Prior knowledge:
Elements: H1 2-11, E1 22-27, H2 34-51, E2 56-66, E3 69-76, E4 82-88, E5 102-105, E6 116-117, E7 123-126, E8 135-138, E9 142-147, E10 161-162, H3 164-179, H4 183-199, H5 211-225, H6 231-243, H7 245-256
Parallel strand pairs: 1-9
Antiparallel strand pairs: 2-3, 2-8, 3-4, 5-7, 6-7, 9-10
Helix pairs in contact: 3-6, 3-7, 4-5, 5-6
Amino acid sequence: MDRAVAAWNDQFARVWDRLPLRVGVVAFPRMTPFQAVIEAARNIEADLARNGNKPETWRVAGCETRDGVTVLSLRSLDGQSEILKTMPIRFPDGREDVFYPNLAVEDKQVRCPHDFQHPKGQTYRHAKDLRSGDGVLVYPSYIAAVFLDSTAKRFEPLSSRQLMQWRRMRDLWRLIDRSVPSQTALRGAWSELVERRETWQGSEGTWLEGGEGAWLDLVRTVFHERLGVRSARLETLVQAARDGLLEWSLEWHMGVLKKQVSGGDR
């Protein structure tokens, strides 16, 4: 999976905005009935198709070009997500690429030297000409993963995530591996947090008034006092708990991959 994402980032760097990668992962024990696996795969396929048919608008937060490469910093309209994309704008023989690294923008006017309009009116702008504040239309890349620890799991609602969160989730585990003292301590701390979270949420998983803030304060306290996590690492884990990435990372690495924490460089 990591290799597939890395290959897509490398080989589709010029067209990542309009040729997204959609990934479905079904993990299961060896004796799982094959029919359950196929049904889970079909559910994932349908979920990814529903989520990725329309482009999203992302706002350019920064744009820098150097040595034939443009680095774009893009932020979602709700301000909750940010991505950094590297786009080659020069061919290996040194010629400037004016064909591939063009992105669809909100702007209806042709303003820059390489701007052009599609016959239907959509304006495209070369990556190096983008400026902070420009709205860019992006077809998002998604990943949906399910672990069939029981065959009934295939009937549960899926949760597709933006592909950029996969890398964050994997990096988060490496941070956890370096920060917590033992697998037992980590499991105990997280079990307590999950149990307390349920008391601050309604039947549909929505937070009761003041519940989310209280739970995140508890997350900070438990990771600091019981697991000895401090400073920037602690804040990273608290933010990941807020975003749901912490739970995903623990489930994927401990539940699916059966990873063990090493205690690392605490």
